[in-house]
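Quick one - inputs below.
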Amino acid sequence: MLEYSLLAGILFGLYFGLVALGLNLIFGVMKIVNLAHGDFLMLGGYGAYIVFTDFHVNPLITLLVEIVIFVLIGFPLYYLLVPRLQASRDPEMLSLILFFGLSQVIEALATLRFGSSERSIPGTVLGDGPISLFQQTFPVAWVVSGAISLLAVGAIYIYLYRTRIGQLTRAVMAQREEALSTGIDVQRISAIAFGIGIAGAAVAGVLSPFMMGSITPSMGVGITITSFAVIVIGSLGNPLGTVAGGIIYGVALMFMQTYFSSWANLLPYLLLIAILLVKPTGLFGRRMRNA
Amino acid sequence: MRRLAVRPAPKRLIPMLVILVAVVAAFAAAPRVYSNQLLLFNTIVYLVLAQGLNIIYGFTGYLPFGYVGFFGAGAYGFSLAVLHWHTPPLAALALGTLVAIILALILTPLLRLSGAYFAVANLAASEAVLQIVSNPNLTDFTKGPYGISLEKIYNPTLSYGAAVVTLAFTLAIVVYLKSSRFGLALQAIREDPISAGMAGVNVVRGRVLAWLMSALVAGLIGGIFAWYVSVFYPETVFDLSVSIFAIVFALFGGTATLVGPILGVLILYGIYNVIGISTPAYFQLIYGLLIVLLILFLPNGIVSLIDRGTRRVP
Amino acid sequence: MVRRTLAAFLIGAFVALGVCGTSARAAQAPPTIKIGTLYASAGSFAAISMPVHKALLLWEEQVNAQGGIYVKAYGKKIPIKIIAYDDQSSTSTAATLYNQLITQDKVDILVSDSGSVLTSVAVPIAREHQMLLFDQTGTGMNFFTSDNRYIVLLSDPISNLWPKNVAEFLVKDGPKLGIKRVAMLYSTNDFTGSQATGFRDFLKGSSIDVVYDHGVPTNTSSYTVLIQTIKALNPDAVIELGYPNNDISFLRDLQGSGTKFKMVFTVYPGLETDLLLKTVGEKGLAYTYTYTPPTVIKYKPDYGMDLDTFKAAWIKKYKDTTDFGFNAVAGYVTALVLEKTLATSESMDQMALRKAVFGLSGKLRTLDGTFMLRGDGAQIGELTPLGQIVPSGNGEVKFVILYPPEAANGKAVYPAP
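Output:
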């Protein structure tokens, strides 16, 4: 049972690392909190659902198309919202409100279009039967999602550390003011990061019918809060720490489910608070951001 | 400006007291002319919460995203005192408030965090309290997920009166902060904690006191809310949207002022109810759009329109 | 002089107006019967609220097309008008809006939103304003007390009664089938938590051992590890009580992890069959046990449309935006009870309405079964039998009714293949 919970926690946690990845990238680069993160995820999920039910397209193909679409949506949305926000007195806090409003708009539109009932895609679409991993069997969706999460994190890593634009992005993350003064086009870098951030949410969204059983237009808020827990445990502003945060979250949740099921939701929050108090930058943060 | 920072001018006190009396008197009299008392009551609840949030965010810069945790703690403290020990409502209100203050004391270490870290940690704390209160293993004590029913002490008239008194009390705290050296010290801490510390301001004590005051008013109004509605579930009093509403209202009006949060609540909560009652089909859509537009075009709140940078709004 | 004349004139005018007002009220029927209600288009209760509300709207459209409903208090047919606000699953907004319906819109009839949480705040408000609360599906046990005369539960039995048939099946038929060890997993909210309590109570003193009895938070979306834990205890039957999202995740994870239990009971395959078929699929539902839906029993209603007619009307109006299921039926049952109440109530006074609703108890038979009220207003009729889903091979499913014996039309396939 112990081994099973541990392995399940790692797989589940990898997925939650992916869920939270985009939120963290956006916070890292822009210091704004995208409260509509879960709603972009939800849209990604409905995209996969619609394309599958109407055209029988495998969600893994939809996933690739959605990356492009969401990056393209992210661009204008960034220029529409963020620069204005950053001109205000306290952008970090105001972003919470602005994106809460956006989240309401997205949820309302999704409800008008998709209705409020649960929707899902048959689990067998990703492959038949459970998969054996270290003598334990897991749903095929968990293994596929875990693998895609690793791929996505790898892609973000290559982007940040092996491309020119990624270097600039890291420069903006480290010191926004300095980056501005050295002539980096901070707005463009941020817009790209914003696009990638919500595309990350959409990728996780495509897998969400399999990992969470079903999707509804109102699922966003809960996902955003969980993502918060994950990125704070990992470290706010460090996208790669997110994966570690996800795994800690996943393993903790699965152990709680096994041994104290009704308290399962309490642990992530306590973990979050405890980690913040011991090490305010998260387990894998480098810079102190303490008052 | 410099002189003002040392000794607040007493003439700023008069307009603030006039506003305080006018608002309280209006809400005390309103049920006689308008019969949807719950709408009035909820408006008072948000006025208190927005001002309570103003105390901590406006004067110290900490944005507690889980502010509703104190509201819920007050509601449950009140209800459990009534259910288990048959405490009379007013005494139970004191106990509920005490529970909220104790929760704030437990959470004091969070003040070491800043910015989004504090906001998120506080949100987590509020969710954690909800998980504990609604856990079925504690049903004998908290009623778990099955909720609270207080029909024996249900008294909308008296609890409405208590809410009006709480409103007066909360506004008075803000008036005090706006006109006292303590309030100015807090604002100095918000602008630059290091210089304020060097100038002899006790930074830690100032923040903790503001934190406890804001928890106090939330706990008090939470208890009164429990008394007024009398049947509720844990999700009702730990509803994240209560925090978000209070924050949106306070920010929209303008923080660190007395009138800002009042205007914010009256206008935005007013609009909220007007949309909800007139065009329910697009309720969420219109309200969401409104929030987005307000933040984009009026990021520093309504008072920034009156104020024009002078920072002299009461 | 002028002033005195004016005063006299004014007084006269007021008196005249007053007389007109009162006499008009006594003699004339209102142009419409105002029915006030709430719905949640967004948030966590949207999925259970919208079908109930849409059923009411469908009813409004139908009856008004025929010139309204017969109102005995006025002795004629009057059109109805549903005044509905969106509470967006927020209880504090709901409280304001309930009050709005009573104090500003002055509705004749107050109907609550669906589900216990959004109904809860209406209970004291209705009582305070002496309005009878027509509670649709708010089944919380707390709402019903002997001293509150202002609530009646229409469309669902009170939560702790729900598991009666499944529990009795286990107690009576379980030993014959070799069922001794039962595992129960429930979501920790009022609705399913109360069912768990009821289930435990019904099993008390029997030979059935509950070897696993745990709650999980209602937003649980992953059951794989829980299923492994339960599997390790090797139970003969597994009872999972959840909201739709829980049941969907549970059944999908069961299938995904390749785990087979000898008996699995869940709540929603029977209540929202179409929804579960779409999300879980025929294979995932095969041989599971559930509350048998009215679709299967096909009660012959004495009053209102039968199930097939209602379903056809529903699909014609809503197509696939809102799935047809138990909640749609629940909304329609509310409508039928309202219709029948107005047709029998001597006056529009709230206590007269209450008397009329209680007069229907045990007599009204709708597509949802027999309507029966306990003295405190709780619904104790409309109890669904235990059924088992068997695959029919064409993407649809078939239900076999197992318990109570007088309703049964087949034998349990145990253990599930």
